[in-house]
Amino acid sequence: MNFVALRMLMGDRLKYVGLVAGLAFAALLVTQQASIFNGYIHRMAAWIRDTGGADLWIMDPQTNHTDDAKRIVDTALQRVRSVDGVEWAVPMFKGFLSARLPDGRLQQVRVVGIDDATMIGGPPRMVEGELADLRGDRAVLVNEADLGKKLIVSESGARRPMRVGDRLDINDNEVRVAGVYAKGPEFFWEPMVYTTYSRALRMAPAQRKQLQFVLAKVRPGADTAKVAADIRAATGLAAYTGDEFAWVTMWYIMIQTGILVNFGITIALGFVIGVLVSALLLYTFMIEQSRNFGALKAMGVTNRAIVRMVAVQVLTVGSLGFGIGVGAAVIGGGVLAKADLAFRMVWQIPLIGAGAILICCLVAGILSLARVLRLEPAIVFKGAT
Amino acid sequence: MSTVNLAAGQPTADTRSAAVRCRAVTKSYGKGDTMVTALRGVDLDIAKGELMMLVGPSGCGKTTLISVIAGILDRDGGECSVFDNDFAGMSQRRKTLWRGQNVGFVFQAFNLLPTLTAAENVAVPLMILGQSRHAAVKKARDTLAMVGLGDRTHSLPSQLSGGQQQRVAIARALIHEPKLIVCDEPTSALDHETGHIIMRLLKNVALSQERALVIVTHDARIFGFADRIAKMDDGHIEKIVTSPKDLE
After folding, report:
1. Which of A230, B10, B173, B231 could be B104's S-S partner, Cβ–Cβ 3.0 to 4.6 Å?
2. How far is A13 from chain B (nearest CA, A)?
3. Domain span at residue A293?
4. Does A380 lie at the interface with B, CB-CB under 8 angstroms?
5. Do residues A295 and A338 both lie within one domain?
6. Residue B75 and residue B66: Cα distance in Å, rounded?
7. What's the CA gap between A293 and B111, in Å, rounded?
8. Is B3 exposed, middle or buried (0-12, 13-18, 19+ CB in 10 A)?
9. Residues B99, A382: C-beta atoms closer than 8 Å
10. Each residue of B154-173: pLDDT tens digit?
11. Does B225 touch chain A (CB under 8 A)?
């Protein structure tokens, strides 16, 4: 009877298209918004993932995210190094400083100062030059993505992207672009400039505390969680793994910006619209088909078979709607990604979308079935009195 | 020609070959002040090979009675067996399965599925019984040929005239070779000539020695096709006659 169920479904083209479109819209909203949300989440902690090499991040316990400048005393570095299980530890500076570009424009930049000796904490990939070029006089590295957008040079009246060899002032300290690096897009938008730790300290305004992070490596065989606990006990500082620091950052930004609630509302609305549209259309479809279902019941179709027929109908529109919705989300995501907007669809998102559509179908199917199953086959005899 | 007055408690049909046997069947709708009694103790026998018509004014209980006989409506009281099966002891599921195997329906409004072709509509009862679509449609084409629609197997109901749609419905009622065929006003939506074609088809093709036909109708033009006519009024059978003239 699956054949009959499908032909009944597809016979009313308008309702069929409406059902598929309703579910496709719900799938599109749920998966697209979830992917954009995931894209933002991913970007919030992108810098932590891009900073490889260390097992633990040590910082002030009140630090809320990667760009939250709460400095710690310089001696913290030595105290971390003295904790049993720590193989090595290096300092890192990170802070917002004002840069004056060659054309005189002011641009806020994030300066990251990495350990002079080891260069641990540097950018993930060099596009031009080498990380070691930072050891050169007044050297900084700039992000490929900022060239031509925020890091621009005016030359003979024409504007061009900043390039290796160009000079700029950071907090009245002249620096020279020694190389260009590449990294994934981030949630924060100010250009990130890498330099050495000691040079970063010279650029930054004098403060009693200058150190932002200590990056530490756990000795092979040592328990990372225990070493982190020992560091916390010995220094009174926070010690996180990369994942833990990423979650601290992500939760803080999600809550403070309202991103979680806003995306949650949009995703929930998509889901509710999907349920309402599909349930309403399927219900009216069943009402219109009730005489046909009545005839089928009279002719010997059991309620169990009716359940199967309705299941086939809702699963068909559900699968089609889901496929079209997710397909549109993927195509739209490709366009969004080209525009450098956050869109990141991981395999779990279509799975969540499928779950949402399945729930839409179940609700719609159950509401419609309740009516059809209660249907007296005697309705096929007009005016049964 | 004879008249059997069941109201006097003298059912004279040959019960040894009875297809349908009803005794004191009652049925009401609603409760309390809104209760409507549709059947007030109906006695009726229908023999195998017989074409029985149920006639009477609107609201007299004809449709309720065929619904009870066909097993799609539960009676409140009395006895009713159809080919020695009493629906009273059956679960809804068993009743539905029994109907699927043993009852063919012809409805006033045809009730063909509008999105299925004529052959697919006719094949539905076989598909309900579990046959493959291919085999069912193949047999449906033969059955449609039997009712004179061999050349319209691919037509949708909307492409057929009322008479052709009713012939498709008859083919659908016949395809699974049921023991009982129940028809509700099969000619009321048709013109006189088409109505006669339909009745000849029912009489000549649908009726057999092992099968009974029950037709509910208002259409006096087709009374002549009946073997017996049961006249109903106010929920009971007033009289059963073998000739329309005796209905006066």
Report:
1. B173
2. 11
3. 2-43+259-380
4. yes
5. yes
6. 11
7. 10
8. exposed
9. no
10. 999 999 998 899 889 989 99
11. no
